[in-house]
Amino acid sequence: MPSVVPEFEAANEKYVASFTKGDLPLPPGRKVAVVACMDARLDPAKALGLEEGDAHVIRNAGGRTIDALRSVVISQQLLGTREIVIVHHTDCGMLTFSDTDIKAKIRDDLNENADHIAFLPFGDLRKSVLDDIEILKKSPLVLDVPITGYIYDVKTGKVDKVKE
Amino acid sequence: MPSVVPEFEAANEKYVASFTKGDLPLPPGRKVAVVACMDARLDPAKALGLEEGDAHVIRNAGGRTIDALRSVVISQQLLGTREIVIVHHTDCGMLTFSDTDIKAKIRDDLNENADHIAFLPFGDLRKSVLDDIEILKKSPLVLDVPITGYIYDVKTGKVDKVKE
């Protein structure tokens, strides 16, 4: 399979040629940390109107906040963010398997034991957002800041706020 | 402090109005997972030429791969990615503190003990990329796929490949 590397480097050359953001400070200008799923169809910057310098963007499988805790604490304690926005999305891969499933697949395909990892899939998308807000609100390491949770619709590009 | 929420939602309305990517499949089209720092000045999609649907983008403080392992395994085992690209960057916040520093700050400011978290700062940027490639290569849960590490220069937008 051909590597993406030559394409990534060619795209980067174009980016550099029109780059104008060389003087941005380290702390995010809009003082917000976004926690979003790694899904390929979601571009948090485009979907939420983020420019370079605006926000920390933390992404993992599912956009799970328990797996983002180290980064959120660094974002707040060292870089001054004071708001959190969570973005999960429709048709998420995390809705398609169980922790037992993936551990069995790893045992079968790789002959390895992955019992020490919680893969954090979920069965209810809306509840996954509410759970992830709650995890941050209950953590003694996370400041009491505004937290908003969204579901991004991969069919329309629209974010819908999840209300409790 | 005013919330970013109204601005995010207004930006999303504009995104939706010109959205044309509603039919993308779940697995990343370019079969690659990008592991990058959460830094606000880095937009991996813009810097590497990623369109919606192309790649998993995993981001955390420092772009540390040990903290991305759950997501990388899901990306490979369930969604078929077969290449990994790591992006750390110049002027990273992770170069500015020690694990001891942040734990002391949390004790002082929040009166909480964070000794159970490894915050994963680093003192040598180039070495952080090589270490993070090595962590993936040594993990029995990660497939033997091409892994490329870059340092993104926040002053120029350029990515430089880190060679061993």
From TrEMBL, chains A, B:
Reaction(s) the record says it catalyses: hydrogencarbonate + H(+) = CO2 + H2O
Organism per entry: Clonostachys chloroleuca
Comment on bound cofactor: Binds 1 zinc ion per subunit.
Binding residue positions for Zn(2+): C37, D39, H89, C92
Cofactor(s) the protein needs: Zn(2+)
Organism superkingdom: Eukaryota
Function: Reversible hydration of carbon dioxide.
Alphabetized UniProt keyword annotations: Lyase, Metal-binding, Zinc
Enzyme Commission number(s) from the entry: 4.2.1.1
Pfam families associated with the record: Pro_CA
Protein name: Carbonic anhydrase
InterPro entries on file: Carbonic_anhydrase, Carbonic_anhydrase_sf
Gene Ontology MF, one: carbonate dehydratase activity
Uppermost EC category: lyase
Entry's family note: Belongs to the beta-class carbonic anhydrase family.
